[in-house]
Every structure is written in structure tokens, then in C-alpha cells.
UniProtKB/TrEMBL annotation:
This is SEC14-like protein 1. Coiled coil: none annotated. One of its GO terms (molecular function) is RIG-I binding. InterPro entries: CRAL-TRIO_dom, CRAL-TRIO_dom_sf, CRAL/TRIO_N_dom, CRAL/TRIO_N_dom_sf, GOLD_dom, GOLD_dom_sf, PRELI/MSF1_dom, SEC14/CRAL-TRIO_domain. Residues 298-474 form the CRAL-TRIO domain. Residues 198-210 have a biased composition (Polar residues).
């Protein structure tokens, strides 16, 4: 029935024509693979077609029929604009394992828009519209051709049986002639895919799609080229942590190099590495750190008086950052800018460092995952020990240590004066032991002797202010004019402004006190979308509908829980006298979300009225294997905070007319960790699901 769609299908107007590119049949007729080049007339604005310079779009589709396994797999990818847009679609027809009269159908697709003449969002909407249309018509079309076969008297196809000569063959058949494969989609794109599952003829029957798992072994050339030397145990840890991230942080997976940094920082203890990595991913998302290089311009004061900058690379190929701390007026910078602006500037330096590591990995052909920092302390004095300045420095160290582990390959401290031991005593306790081992400290001119600077940096690039011949463009620093100083009140307001530039909100969830968000829907068939991270504890996510408006929200005042985190509010809307089923109803099945999970989803509203999104505390069940409490449970019970959860969330309502064009909101796409994932910053990835997707 499926083959009757070719070479063209009147039920699919956009399907203009198709040509067979490659075809293979096994000798025992069990395997039949056919590859076609399909010509499509996409429903796109005429202006967009004119700009793109095409009237038709070409896709390559490969159908693999395995009569032995009783499966039909269909793969398709775009040939047109494949360097700008990557579309990959997969469909499969299989026999249900429990009932041979049922045919299971599974369909998934991924979309990765790298660039498209500035019309990325338009292309996304067009692609999503076409995909939605295909989902609706897919079953209709296959049933049309099944009925056509029945009218022709074809109601039964005999099951394949192996010829006598082939009975000893393995159940897995390997074609002798290669068939060109579908395009290789980046892992992050396939994870952030579109999905639609159903069973033909019996929609209510269960289906068990095969879950994808990462390879249990990485390619040796890939490891050597991008990751460096790994023992089998370390490789296994990386794969297991990446698999866990794929299951819980759909579409937001950092690159292997970055996951590896967190594993190395915790000596490949997966539980510890997972904890700090999840905290870091949540932090990046909340403060939009991925976009800092593209959206934030440092104030002119920093550009003029911050005596630091990138300067070539060291002998190992690591990017080299030069900081003339002794020439920098830390007190003046703090008084003129405040802690937050300084912290944001340091974050931008670290983000630039990650980018330069990637570039140098390509240039030198070997993995480079860290940078070298050269700190010149000439001029350091008691002014640098000003208490607010030291406090700002300690906070910066704390944030960098938590979110950029194993990025400092070596720290060269030159011309350390007598006051340096005082500063070192204050700072060193906040620096990780592994990081401290990378410090090399030189007093006076010792850096010029054996074991000095020349062992780590080529003579040609030693900065001129250290006696070298290379002109260094790092600002010379100097005193910040007092006319640029700002009052404490001005700085405080500016600090709040800097760190509230986020589309996400934080909420605390307590035992017996859920957090609830009210959404009023005027037009039925609107779409409520959500994106949230469970930062602490386990929660249950619910969606309710009510025809009556709840009472004005009241802040929960649980003094015993001492809510101190900024923005960590707790709002309850459902009155205690309300009864489920009478005053309000549940419109989605409850979803249990574990600590560290990232959840995205949408709900198409059926009625106008008031919808309530609820995050509720989830109590862990008692251990089934033993009546004895675990050590972790005992420790948790001793802390009041064990009854507190924290979520970070974003919600948006999309009109039904917009939903048909795009199943994801443009704002929701901000949640991707673009700088750390395989996708580029300009990439726009979409996914849709009729259920909550994790």
C-alpha cells in the first residue's frame, strides 16, 4: 500500500514527482531497499522562494522493507539547502509484539536551521506546518491505498519464508551492495526532535517504541582528536553521564568536551559530576550566559581600565590570557561598576576562552580544552586589599570554579611583591585543590631564568612589558577617575537589573504548599507551553481547569521554611474548600519529575476559562528492599530544606492560529545551551509533542 504513493500521489498535492536513484533486492527476496529523489512544491511565500532562488525542494527518501523481520523503515532528508537547513525524518511500520493483527506506526523528525537569509523563524513555521499536515494525513493516505487494494481483491499477502538454500542464513542480513545512507544529523538535533506515535486500526492499543541508546564505545579517532587520552573507565563514565543527560535534559546536551571537564573536576565520580553539571546548566539557562558574547557590550570603563586581554597562545596551543592585575584599579572599578558588571565581564572572558579552545583544537589538530593565564603583579599594593574589592574577587572565583571547571590549564604569576602572601592567604581557600596545583609563582625577575616563562611561552610572543619583543594590546589600566564613581544605591539598582534579564521565574515548593500559576484562556484551542527545570527535590506537575476564577493569589508565609532565595516565591491558587471534579478538573495526567530534569511540553486547551499549572512536592517512597533507612535519607531528614523543592519555569500561551504555524514559541527556544551544545548559536531547533516531553 505504501509503494502506491509513488512516483506521485494525488492525495499529497505538494508531491510533484519522484525518480528512483538506487534499488537493491536480496537474493532471497527478504530485503528490498529503494531510494528515491522526490520533488516537492512547498507552500511558501513567493518572496521567500524568490530570495532562495528555487521553485521546488528536493528530498531523498530511502524505504527499507525487511520481510524477514516484517518491518518497513522510511528515512528522508533534504537535499536542497542541506548546508543551511537539516531535516531528517524517520517512519516505521512494525508488527505489534503482543498482537500480530496490529500494525504499529511510529514517526519522528528533527529540524535544525543553521541560517536561511535571515528568515529562520519563517522557515521553521513552514516546516512545522508541513510536518503537522503530514501527521494528520499519513494515516488517511495509507488507509486510502489499503482500501484500494481491497477493491482490487488483494486482502492478503503471504508471509515470507526463506528458500531452502537460505535457511542457514543469519537472521540479520547485510546487503552486498551499499545504499547511500540518510544524512548524518547531529546528536543534539535528533534529540530535540518531533514525535508522533500511533497504532493503525487500533488507536487505543499500547505501543512500545524502541528507545535509542548512545553507543557503548566512542570512536578512537574521535577521542584522540577532540577529547584526549581516556581510560576505558573514563570513557564509560562519559557515555553514562551523556546518556543520563539525554534522558533528562532533552535537546540541551553540552558537548562531550564540556561534560568531560565536570567529570575530571570530580575525579570521574559520576554522581558528583552530574550534580555540579546540572547546577551549572540551570545557572547558564537562568542568566542567559549562552548569549552573553552576542548580547552584552562591556561598559566603556571596563574597556579602558580593565587591564586584561587575549594574547596569542602558549607552547601547548592553549589560548593565552594576560592580566596586569598590579596595574588595575580594582577599587575604582568596583566603585564605578559594582560587583555584577565585573562578574559579567569575567564570564564573557570565560565564554570567549571556550570559543578559542574550540578554534585551537581545529588549528592544532589535537584536543585543547583549557587556557593559560599570565598574571603580572607588578604594582600590587595594599590598595588591592580593599575589602569590597577582595569580596568581589572571591565571588568571581566562586562562580568561575563552579561553572568553568578544568578550563585553566596553567596560571603563571609573575613579579609577585611582598604583599602577595597576604592576598594569597585570603584567596587560596576558595580555589579548588586541582586548580592550585596549576599555579606557578615567580618573585621579582625569576621568570626570566631557567624554568621560567620561556618554558611555557615562545620567545616571539612574550609581551613587551615583560621584556619581550611582542607588542601586547592589553590596556595598561590606571586609576579610574572618581567622577565615574556611582553611589551604593545606583550600583544596587544596576546589579538587580543585570541579573533579572531572564525569561524564567523561580519558585519554591514545600511539603503541603505547592506553587501554582494561573493562565486565563479566552479562545478555546489555544496552546499553553511550558519549559521548566527541577533545581532541587522531586516534584509532581499537574494542569487543572476551572470555570471559576480562583481568589487573588496569596504569598505563602511559611516562616519555618525561611524563603530567602530571590524570586523563589510560593503562590497557591486552589482554595482548600474546592473539590476536584466539582470546582476544577485535571486535564493532563500527573507527571513526576526528578531533581535535575528539564521538562518541556504543551497542552491544547479544549475550553475557555482558567487553567492552573501546579508544581507539587513529591515524597519519595520507602525503600522496597529493606526496612532500614539509608544514610542519605537520615541526613536529609535532619535538614528542614529536605521538605523544600525549587523549580525554574517559563510559560507562554500561543494562539491557535500561531500554533498551526509553529509548535514552539520563539521565546522558548532561548532555553538551549547553544555555546556548549553541538548546535550553533544561530540554530533554531523545534520539537512538538502531544504529551509532556522530557
Amino acid at each position: 500500500a505504501y509503494e502506491r504513493r509513488f512516483p506521485t500521489c494525488p492525495l499529497i498535492p505538494m508531491f510533484v514527482a519522484s525518480d528512483t536513484v538506487n534499488e537493491y533486492k536480496s537474493e532471497d527476496e527478504a530485503i528490498h531497499v529503494i531510494e528515491r529523489r522526490c520533488k516537492l512544491d512547498i507552500d511558501a511565500p513567493r518572496l521567500l522562494k524568490k530570495i532562495a532562488g528555487v521553485d521546488y525542494v528536493y528530498f531523498v527518501q530511502k524505504n527499507s522493507l525487511n520481510r524477514r523481520e516484517r518491518t518497513l523503515h522510511i528515512e528522508a532528508y533534504n537535499e536542497t539547502f542541506s548546508n543551511r537547513v537539516i531535516i531528517n525524518e524517520h517512519c516505521s511500520y512494525t508488527v505489534h509484539p503482543d498482537n500480530e493483527d496490529w500494525t504499529c506506526f511510529e514517526q519522528s523528525a528533527s529540524l535544525d536551521i543553521k541560517s536561511f537569509f535571515g528568515f529562520e523563524s519563517t522557515v521553521e513555521k513552514i516546516a512545522m506546518k508541513q510536518y503537522t499536515s503530514n501527521i494528520k494525513k499519513g494515516k488517511e493516505i495509507i488507509e486510502y491505498y489499503l482500501k484500494q487494494l481491497e477493491e482490487e481483491g488483494i486482502t492478503f499477502v503471504p508471509r515470507w519464508t526463506p528458500p531452502v538454500a537460505c535457511k542457514s542464513e543469519s537472521s540479520t542480513f547485510h546487503p552486498r551492495r551499499p545504499v547511500s545512507p540518510a544524512i548524518n544529523i547531529p546528536e543534539s538535533a535528533t534529540k530535540e526532535g518531533l514525535s508522533n506515535k500511533e497504532i493503525l486500526n487500533t488507536p487505543s492499543s499500547p505501543s512500545e517504541p524502541t528507545a535509542g541508546t548512545p553507543d557503548d564505545k566512542l570512536d578512537a579517532d574521535y577521542i584522540k582528536r577532540y577529547l584526549g587520552d581516556l581510560t576505558p573507565m573514563q570513557e564509560s563514565c562519559l557515555i553514562r553521564l551523556r546518556q543520563w543527560l539525554q534522558e533528562t535534559h532533552k535537546g540541551k546536551i553540552p558537548k562531550d568536551e564540556h561534560i568531560l571537564r565536570f567529570l575530571r573536576a570530580r575525579d570521574f565520580n559520576i554522581d558528583k559530576a552530574r550534580e555540579i553539571l546540572c547546577q551549572s546548566l540551570t545557572w547558564r539557562k537562568q542568566h542567559q550566559v549562552d548569549y552573553i558574547l552576542d548580547t552584552w557590550n562591556p561598559p566603556q570603563v571596563l574597556q579602558d581600565y580593565y587591564a586584561g586581554g587575549w594574547h596569542h597562545h602558549d607552547k601547548d596551543g592553549r589560548p593565552l590570557y594576560v592580566l596586569r592585575l598590579g596595574q588595575m584599579d580594582t577599587k575604582g572599578l568596583v566603585r564605578a561598576l559594582g560587583e555584577e558588571a565585573l562578574l559579567r565581564y569575567v564570564l564573557s572572558i570565560n565564554e570567549e576562552g571556550l570559543r578559542r579552545c574550540e578554534e585551537n583544537t581545529k588549528v592544532f589538530g589535537r584536543p585543547i580544552s583549557s587556557w593559560t593565564c599570565l598574571v603580572d603583579l607588578e604594582g600590587l599594593n595594599m590598595r588591592h586589599l580593599w575589602r569590597p574589592g577582595v569580596k568581589a574577587l572571591l565571588r568571581i572565583i566562586e562562580v568561575v570554579e563552579a561553572n568553568y571547571p578544568e578550563t585553566l590549564g596553567r596560571l603563571l604569576i609573575l613579579r609577585a611583591p611582598r604583599v602577595f602572601p597576604v592576598l594569597w592567604t585570603l584567596v587560596s581557600p576558595f580555589i579548588d585543590d586541582n586548580t592550585r596545583k596549576k599555579f606557578l609563582i615567580y618573585a621579582g625577575n625569576d621568570y626570566q631564568g631557567p624554568g621560567g616563562l620561556l618554558d611555557y611561552i615562545d620567545k616571539e610572543i612574550i609581551p613587551d612589558f615583560l621584556g619581550g619583543e611582542c607588542m601586547c594590546e592589553v590596556p595598561e589600566g590606571g586609576l579610574v577617575p572618581k567622577s565615574l564613581y556611582r553611589t551604593a544605591e545606583e550600583l544596587e539598582n544596576e546589579d538587580i537589573k543585570l541579573w533579572t534579564e531572564t525569561i524564567y521565574q523561580s519558585a519554591s515548593v514545600f511539603k503541603g504548599a505547592p506553587h501554582e500559576v494561573l493562565i486565563q484562556i479566552v479562545d478555546a484551542s489555544s496552546v499553553i507551553t511550558w519549559d521548566f527545570d527541577v533545581c532541587k527535590g522531586d516534584i509532581v506537575f499537574n494542569i487543572f481547569h476551572s470555570k471559576r476564577a480562583p481568589q487573588p493569589p496569596k504569598k505563602d508565609s511559611l516562616g519555618a521554611h525561611s524563603i530567602t532565595s530571590p524570586g523563589g516565591n510560593n503562590v497557591q491558587l486552589i482554595d482548600k474548600v474546592w473539590q476536584l471534579g466539582r470546582d476544577y478538573s485535571m486535564v493532563e495526567s500527573p507527571l513526576i519529575c526528578k531533581e535535575g530534569e528539564s521538562v518541556q511540553g504543551s497542552h491544547v486547551t479544549r475550553w475557555p476559562g482558567f487553567y492552573i499549572l501546579q508544581w507539587k512536592f513529591h515524597s519519595m517512597p520507602a525503600c522496597a528492599t529493606t526496612n532500614l533507612p539509608r544514610v542519605d535519607d537520615v541526613l536529609a531528614s535532619l535538614q528542614v530544606s529536605s521538605h523544600k523543592c525549587k523549580v525554574m519555569y517559563y510559560t507562554e500561551v500561543i494562539g491557535s492560529e500561531d500554533f498551526r504555524g509553529s509548535m514552539t514559541s520563539l521565546e522558548s527556544s532561548h532555553s538551549g545551551f547553544s555555546q556548549l551544545s553541538a548546535a550553533t548559536t544561530s540554530s533554531s531547533q523545534s520539537h512538538s509533542s502531544s504529551m509532556i516531553s522530557r
